[in-house]
Amino acid sequence: MHNMLSLTTNSMLLVYGKAKADVVAAAVYLDPMGGRMNIRQLQYFCAVVTTGSFSRSAQEQGVSVQAVSKAIVELEDELGAPLFIRGNKGATPTSFGWELYRTAQAAVDAFGRVEQHAAYLCQSHRRSVEGRDDLRLSLIYHPFSKNELMCAGFSLLLRKRTGVRTRMTLSAGPAALQALFEGELDALITIGAFEHPRCETIKVGTLPTGVYFSRFHPLHSLSQVSYEDLAPYPALCVAEYEGFNESILDVYRAHGLTSTYGVP
Questions:
Q1: Angle formed by the axes of helices 65-79 and 54-61, nearest 10°
Q2: 136: phi > 0 → left, psi -120 to 50 → alpha, else beta; which?
Q3: What are phi and psi of 139, to 5 degrees?
Q4: Where are the beta strands (DSSP E) in the chain?
Q5: Is 237 helix (H, G, I), strand (E, B) or coil?
Q6: Structural domain boundaries in the chain
Q7: 94: Cβ–Cβ under 8 A, 6 or more apart, which residues?
Q8: pLDDT band for position 236 (cuts 50, 70, 90)
Q9: Measuring CA to CA, which residue among 20, 2, 35 is closest to residue 189?
C-alpha cells in the first residue's frame, strides 16, 4: 500500500495519492487555501485566544511578542476585521475572532496531525528507500498566487518540527500518483476525498472554504453569500484536476449549488 497525505474539502487527509480541484464562479473564486493566510498566523492567533495574552502566547510558542503581534496584525489586515480587543489586562477576541477561532483551531490541530504522520512516513521511508533520507510530498492542487512560497514555507516548517528534510511541490493528480507508485514521492496531500485500491488514505482534518470577490463584484457588499446568490455565475473546472478526487465543486453541488459549469 502506498502512503498519501490527503486534505479534503471538508476534511484533511494523509494519503498516498490524492488531489483537489479548483472552482471559479465568474469573478468569484472559491479557494480552500484562502489568500495569503498561513498556518503560523493561525497558530499564534489560537494561542492568543487560549492564553488571553500576547506575551503568554509568545512564551508558549517560543517566539518574541513582536513576532506574535506582527502575525496577528497581518492576519487582521488580510481578513479586513479586528480579531482582538487589546487592553492592559490582555487581549479578548472580538465576535469575529471567536467565529474564526472555531475553524482556525481545527486547522492547527489538523496540521499537527500532518506533522506527526510526516515523521512516521519519514521513519518508514528511511527503512525502505536506500540512499535517501528526505521526505518528498506533493500537494494535488492547481497553481495559485505565491504557491512556491507556500510550499517552501510548509517544507521548512515540517523540517523544523520533525527534523526531517522535506520538499513539497504542486502537482496534478494522475502524474503525482504515478510518481508515488514509482517511489519518486513519499506521500500526496489532497483536498477532497480520494480512494484508490493501491493507496492508504488517512483523514487528518478539515479546511473551511471561502468566497472571494473583487470590490466591483455585485455580491461584494453582502456579509454572507448563499448558494442561491452564486447560482447566476457559471463555475469553471480545470479538467486536469477535476475528477481525480472529490473536489470543492462536488461538495458545493451536493449541498445545493446549481451554477452551470464547464471546462475552459
A1: 110
A2: beta
A3: -90, 125
A4: 2-7, 12-15, 23-25, 28-30, 84-87, 90-93, 135-140, 166-171, 187-191, 199-205, 211-212, 235-237, 261-262
A5: strand
A6: 1-36+112-264, 39-98
A7: 81, 82, 83, 84, 85
A8: confident
A9: 20
Closest to 11 (Cα-Cα) out of 22, 20, 2, 23 = 20
Contact 242, 20 (CB under 8 A): no
If you search the block for the grid coordinates 494519503, which residue do you land on?
15
Position 254, amino acid: A
Q: What is the pLDDT of residues 188-232, one digit of tens each?
A: 888 888 888 888 787 777 777 777 778 888 888 888 888 888 888
Return the C-alpha cell found at 87.
487592553
The domain at 39-98 falls in which architecture?
Answer: Orthogonal Bundle (1.10)
pLDDT tens-digit profile of 21-75?
A: 322 222 232 333 344 578 889 999 999 999 999 999 999 989 999 999 999 998 8
**What mean pLDDT is reported for the chain?**
76
Q: What is the pLDDT of residues 3-20, one digit of tens each?
A: 443 333 333 343 333 223
Residue with cell 489586515: 77
